[in-house]
Write a structure and sequence with these properties.
The longest helix is centred in the last third of the chain and has 13 residues. The protein is 27% helix and 17% strand. The strands form 3 sheets. A 6-stranded mixed sheet has the order 2-3-1-4-5-6. It contains 11 helices and 13 strands. The protein has 2 domains: 170 residues, Anticodon-binding domain (Rossmann fold, 3-Layer(aba) Sandwich), CATH 3.40.50; 139 residues, Anticodon-binding domain (Rossmann fold), CATH 3.40.50. Helix 1 packs across helix 4 and helix 7 crosses helix 10. The protein is elongated. It is of the alpha/beta class. Strand 12 and strand 13 form a beta hairpin.
Length: 341
């Protein structure tokens, strides 16, 4: 079957650097498509394209992005190979991540797993809509290809064996899609556009802490004290890394959600190779009310968006060890698995 051209925007002089995703409806199930779109939410750069439409250029935003949704009957039943071939046209934008709504998306109403692959090449894998949405928010960051490579390893789309007659049993033995646990959270993570545009948050230090609750200045002062002067058990200067965390105390971020902050953080363009922790720390309302003032840590790479809580005393140690590669997020999330949000 001959497919029409995908509605990909033509490249402007610098359009190749615009990050984003392409979602293609390859199944006939209306309910599955609507559910996937609902779970993705109102992401920045979203464009819904029907038959014969051409996606517009990316909007002038602090971080230009595109998310092109293709709902065209001519692409029903499309395979990753067909979509990949359509991306090879000269002079068109190539998305960082391609997603297909297919028959397995329709069959699994709990997770709605999407078939995914990198637009620049790689193996296919399965990812949930909410994990895809969070990944879209950080696709502009350098080295995100490494994160997508991890996704390929964690949730390969096809196993190394052929299904037998019991397809349901075969399905149950497949690895869960990346982000399966996000779909069960209450409430699940969801990006909502901020009421007012948020300024960019530029990472220029090992760590970044953003205050989003301004209801209790005394609690904020106590939190900063614990961050910069760790108490018993953190007395050795080698364990005191609070000064490696840059603090943003600006009311413009009052009430900002973790997803909005994820979309606003970028690496310093002057020093993109600066060693940084791929996580943003948030002092939110829960942090201010918590006697320990535990911060919300929101990963920006690897397990993108899998937020967890960490005490301010441990925050400096974490960001420095993450920045230099001594440890991974699992060394901190495993400490308090019940505190994941």
């Amino acid at each position: 079957m001959r497919r029409p051209a995908l509605p990909l925007p033509l490249l402007a002089d610098d359009a190749a650097s615009v990050s984003g995703m392409l979602l293609v409806r390859a199944d006939h199930d209306d309910e599955a498509w609507d559910d996937v779109c609902s779970r993705l939410g109102e992401l920045p750069g979203l464009v819904v394209s029907g038959p014969g439409h051409q996606a517009p250029a990316a909007l002038e935003e602090p971080v230009p992005r595109r998310l092109i949704l293709v709902d065209d009957p001519a692409w029903r039943g499309a395979t990753p190979e067909e979509v990949s071939e359509a991306l090879t046209r000269d002079g068109v934008w190539v998305p960082g991540l391609v997603l297909l709504v297919d028959d397995r998306t329709a069959a699994n109403t709990r997770l709605r797993p999407l078939l995914a692959f990198r637009g620049t090449g790689g193996d296919t894998f399965r990812i949930t809509p909410r994990q895809a949405a969070l990944t879209h928010l950080v696709l502009h960051r350098p080295y995100l290809d490494l994160t997508l490579q991890c996704f390929e390893e964690w949730a390969p789309a096809e196993p190394g064996w052929e299904p037998d007659e019991d397809v349901e049993e075969w399905e149950s033995e497949l690895p869960e899609p990346v982000g399966a646990h996000l779909e069960s959270l209450d409430p699940p993570p969801r990006y909502e556009p901020p009421v007012r545009a948020l300024p960019l948050l530029t990472q220029e230090n090992a760590g970044l802490l953003v205050r989003t609750d301004f209801s209790d200045d005394a609690a904020w002062a106590s939190l900063l004290g614990a961050l910069h002067r760790p108490g018993p058990g953190y007395g050795d200067p080698i364990d005191d890394f609070g000064d490696y965390i840059e603090t943003v105390d600006d009311p413009v971020f009052g009430g900002a959600t973790p997803e909005q902050l994820m979309a606003s953080v970028r690496v310093s363009p002057e020093d993109p190779d600066q060693m940084i922790a791929d996580v943003v720390l948030v002092a939110d309302r829960a942090s201010m009310r918590d006697p320990e003032h535990r911060l919300l840590a929101v990963p920006l790479e690897d397990r993108v968006g899998w937020a967890f809580r960490i005490t301010p005393e441990m925050a400096g140690t974490m960001v420095v060890n993450l920045a230099v590669g001594n440890q991974g997020l699992e060394d901190y999330t495993d400490v308090e698995p019940e505190a994941r949000l």
